Amino acid sequence: MRLPDGSDLGRIWYYRDITDRKQTEQALQARESQYRDLVETSNSVILRCDPDGKARFINDYGQRFFGFSADELIGRSITETIVPQIETTGRDLRQLMADYAQQPEQYSLYENENVCKNGDRVWMSWTNKPIFDSDGNLIEILSFGTDATERKQAQLALQKSEAQLQAILNNANASIFVKDLEGCYTFANRALAEEFNVQPEEIIGKTDYEFLPFDLAEIYSANDRKALDAGTAIKINETTPHRDGDSTFVTVKFPLFDLEGNTYATCSISTDISDRVCAETALCNSKLRYRSIFQNSQVGIGRSCFKQNGLFLGANQRCAEILGHRSATELIDKRFALKYYVNPDDRQHLINELEQQGEVPDFEVKLRRIDGLIVWALISLKVNVEATCTDFVLTDISERKRSPVNAPRQARPSHNLNLAMGAPTVVTLFFDREFKYFDPVP
Predict the structure, then answer these.
(1) What is the C-alpha to C-alpha distance for residues 104 and 92, in angstroms, rounded to an integer?
(2) pLDDT of 442 strictly over 60
(3) Dihedral sign, Cα of residue 234, residue 235, residue 237, residue 240
(4) Does residue 302 sit in the same domain as residue 388?
(5) Do both 207 and 295 map to the same domain?
(6) Is residue 16 part of a domain?
(7) 357, 371, 409, 427: which could form a disulfide with 324 (CB 3.0–4.6 Å)?
(8) Is the pTM of this model over 0.85?
(9) What is the pLDDT of residues 144-171, one digit of tens each?
(10) How sure is the predictor about 428, in pLDDT bands with cuts at 50, 70 and 90?
(11) Angle at 14 between CA 10 and CA 16, to 5 degrees
């Protein structure tokens, strides 16, 4: 204080207790130090950006993770450093950053691809928090990122595997489907959808009763239960009626188990064998029709291993009769060839011709029947390469040989008969011992 003349009168001192403020400042400094340590020692990327996507801060872990120093990042747009402009999925991340500034609430949790300084692509799972000023304007984006690369790669690999499996199942030439324990479809491939004349997604959640007649649905459901009860795969034939006829399927059904070994579904793989069934039926009918023709033909028909002493592999009844046997069974698996030739040179001639030409047409030969009677025969032979044997047609021409006056007139029908039933066609196709096939001349 001063007197009017300007001299000092004295001083007044004012004191205020600021202990609380100092303690608060010290506590704040300690807390900031703790937060700084937490940020810098965190195993997550901590990033702060302005609304334009320019980095304001990145912690030490983030610098090490991406390979950039703080100086290389601060002040630069993250789309120039740690965020690729275009993701490998094709997504435009520049547009994503622009959208974030407009709708930050849509991106609170987000996954996207990032890029390291060395060019490596990594997947990050980001937790983003927008920071607003007192007027509600976006002033900063605080982001916490964790490495999700392994999980994302596993997820992408799984998606690829599932897509591959789906493609295989949808292009399989079989109806493949899965039903839960209540009989509801949980999976159906394209083949089954075509069978039901619907789209695959229209099958899911439905049962056989919604696609098939009740009686047939009951049968299919019973077959599912058989597989569940068996606890293993079963193979059955199933038939589905259609307007243009029934379809026959060979079906393999088996239960599916969870990790604890509990059954949770039934899988079925059904292959349409309708064409095969029709072919087998037609073949069976053909066998029945032509077995009689084969057995009752007036021409001897046979098959033998000609070079192996004439082992007979098959013969019809007429062949046996020409050679003096009561039935064809007396010939099968027997070697009589050397006994039949009156002139052994004839057999050697036939063997030579077969070796050179592969066939011998209309060769007249004198044969000795098993009962000793001499007969004349017209024989045609052809090597069956596929069956590694020789097929032959044998005609008794004894009457013609005994009536030389009628020979020219009778020889032609015999020759024509051989051409029609032997030479290149019937000889190679006529029979085997069990009569497995027959391809007649059209």
Answers:
(1) 17
(2) no
(3) positive
(4) yes
(5) no
(6) no
(7) 371
(8) no
(9) 999 999 998 898 889 899 889 889 888 8
(10) very low
(11) 165
Measured CA distances, 288 to 15, 133, 436, 439 (Å): 128, 96, 11, 13
Q: pLDDT band at residue 141, thresholds of 50, 70 and 90? A: very high
- Same domain for 145 and 116: yes
Per DSSP, the three-state class of 360 is: strand
Residues in CB range of 266: below 8 A, 6 or more apart: 178, 179, 181, 224, 227, 228, 253, 254, 255, 256
> 374: which DSSP letter?
E
CB of 252 closer than 8 Å to CB of 235: yes
Structural domain count, the chain = 3
278 pLDDT band, cuts 50/70/90, is confident
Residue 39 is predicted with a pLDDT of: 56
- Strand, coil or helix: 109: strand
* Same domain (yes/no): 130, 77: yes
Regarding whether 381 and 318 lie in a shared domain, the answer is yes
Q: Is residue 289 part of a domain?
A: yes
Q: Which residue has the tokens 């005609």?
A: 395
Structural domain harbouring 379: 284-429
Residue 131: give its domain's CATH number: 3.30.450.20
The per-residue b/e assignment along 9-27, b for 16 or more CB within 10 angstroms, e otherwise, is: eeeeeeeeeeeeeeeeeee
Q: What is the DSSP letter of 134?
A: T
The amino acid occupying position 88 is T
Strands 185-188 and 175-180: antiparallel
Contact in structure between 393 and 421 (CB atoms under 8 Å): yes
**Amino acid at residue number 211:** F
367 and 239 fall within a common domain: no
Does a structural domain hold residue 180?
yes
- Given a cut of 80, whether residue 382 has pLDDT beyond it is yes
Indicate the pairing of strand 121-132 with strand 263-272: unpaired
Q: Which residues pair with 179 in a beta bridge?
A: 185, 266
Residues 393 and 314 sit within 8 Å (Cβ to Cβ) = no
Q: Give the C-alpha separation, 55 to 109, whole Å.
A: 19
Which residue, among 329, 311, 307, has the nearest Cα to 319 in the 3D structure?
329
Burial code of 276-290, b = ≥16 C-beta within 10 A, e = fewer?
A: ebeeeeeeeeeeeeb
Residue 403 lies in a domain: yes
How many whole angstroms separate alpha carbon 175 and alpha carbon 171? 10
- Please give the structure tokens belonging to residue 418: 């051989």
Share of the chain above pLDDT 90, in %: 44
